[in-house]
Amino acid sequence: MPTERQVSERWVVFLIGAVQFVNILDFVMVMPLGPDFAKGLGIASSHIGTIGGAYTAAASVAGLLGGYFLDRYDRRRALAVSMLGLVVATAAGGLATGLSTLMLARVAAGIFGGPATSLSLSIIADLIPVERRGRALGAVMGAFSVASVAGVPMALKLAEHGGWRLPFFVVAALGLLVVVGAIFFLPPMRGHLTAERGAARSVGVLELLGRREVQLSYVMTAVVMMAGFVLIPNISAYLQQNLGYPRDLLWFPYFVGGIVSFVTLRLAGPLVDRYGAFRLGTAGSVLLLVATYVGFVDYPRWLPIPLLFVLFMTAMGVRNVSYNTLTSRVPDNPVRARFMSLQSAIQHMASAVGAFLSAQLLTDLPDGTLGGMTRVAWVCMGLTVALPPMLWVVERQVRSREQARALAVPASQGLAVPLSPQAHPHQ
C-alpha cells in the first residue's frame, strides 16, 4: 500500500474526482431518466420529483449523523464503505419493481452518497497543502461538469438502447471500480486519529457549531446552495415556455455550459490560491449578478441562449471554487470529516429550501408561460449579494488563525504531511 509520502497529488485528485463523478452522476441522471422508469414501473409522473428528493433528504440526514462519527475512522476505509454502499444502492435502483422499492433504493443511495462527498473533500483538504488546494478542489469539482457533459447523455443513450435499468447497473459498475482504486491507491488516512487526539475527542458537534468561523461558513453554504437551487431547477422550463427555445435543441446549451464550467473550474482554482477566496469569490458573484439579471429579469432577445449559459456557468464556477476552497480551511484536521459531513447536510437542506421557495414564487400562466421568474431571479441576486462580505470575514479569521499557529507550532509538528507532486504511487 502507498504511504502519504509516496502517493502523488495528481493521483489523489484523480481518484477523488472519480468518486465525485460517480456520486454526482448517480444523482443527476435520475431526473432525466424519470419518464423512462415512470413508464416502465407504472409510476405517476407527479412522483418523479419525490423520487429525486428522496436522495437529497436522505443525504441531509446522513450528513447530520455522520458529523458524530466519521472522524473516528480511517478516511480511506470510511470512503470505501460509503462508496460500496452507494454501489449496492444504485444497483438496487436498477432492480426496483415499483415506486416503494425505487424510493428505498434512492434513500439508501443518499445515506451513503452524502458521507462519500464529505469524506472526499476531507481527504483533499488533509493531503493537499493550502497553497495548492484551490487547484485541487477546482479539478475535483470539475467532476460535476463531466457528469453533466458526458455522464447524463451517456445515461440517456444507455436507456434508449438497453432500457432504463441499464444506466443504474453501469454506474454501479463504475462505482465498484472506484472502490477498488480507493482501497489500493489511496494512502491510509489516520493522521487525524493520532494527531491532537485529545482535541478530537473534546470537540463535539455542539462545540464545533459554537465557533464563529464555522457558523459563518455554514451560513455561506446555505446562501450559495439556496441561490443556486431557487433558480437552476426552473431554467429548462423557463427556456422552453418563456423564451421559446426548441426542446430538441435543449441539450446544446447544457452541453456548452458543462464544458465552460469544466474549464472555468480548472482555471479558477490556481487563481484562488494566488489571489484569495474573497477577491475571486467577489468577482464570481458580480458576474453572477450580471448573468442572472440579463438572463432572467431583462433578457435581450439578440443574446443567444448558449452564450447566456457560458456567462452563467463561468460565474457559478468561479464563485463555487472560491467558496469551497475557503471552507476547506475552516476546520482543524481532527474534526474535518465531521465539519464536512455537517456541511453536506446543510447543502442538501438549503437546496431543498431553495427549490421549495421557487415553487411558491412560480405560477403557470394561462398563456403557457412560467410566471414569477423575475421574483425568483431577484431572490437569487439578493442571496448572491450577501456572499462576498461573509467570504471576507471568514478568510480574515482563517488567515489570522493560520498565522498564529505557524508562529506557535514548528513546521515539523504540522498535522498534515504534504504530498510531493512528483511522487509516484508505486515508488
Written description of the protein model:
The chain is an all-alpha fold. The chain has 2 domains: 182 residues, Growth Hormone, Chain: A (Up-down Bundle), CATH 1.20.1250.20; 200 residues, Up-down Bundle (Growth Hormone, Chain: A), CATH 1.20.1250.20. 75% of the residues lie in helices and 1% in strands. The chain is built from 18 helices and 2 strands. It has a two-stranded antiparallel ribbon with strand order 1-2. It starts with 8 loop residues before the first helix and ends in a 19-residue tail after the last helix. 48% of the residues are buried. The N terminus and C terminus are likely disordered.
Helix/sheet category: mainly alpha
Instruction: Assign the CATH superfamily of the largest domain.
Output: MFS general substrate transporter like domains
Question: Biggest sheet: strands side by side, in what order?
Answer: 1-2
| Separation of the first and last Cα atoms | 10 Å
What is the beta-strand fraction? under 5%
- The Cα radius of gyration reads 21 Å
Just name the CATH architecture of the largest domain: Up-down Bundle
Number of domains: 2
Contiguous low-pLDDT stretches (5 residues minimum) are 1-6, 196-202, 414-427
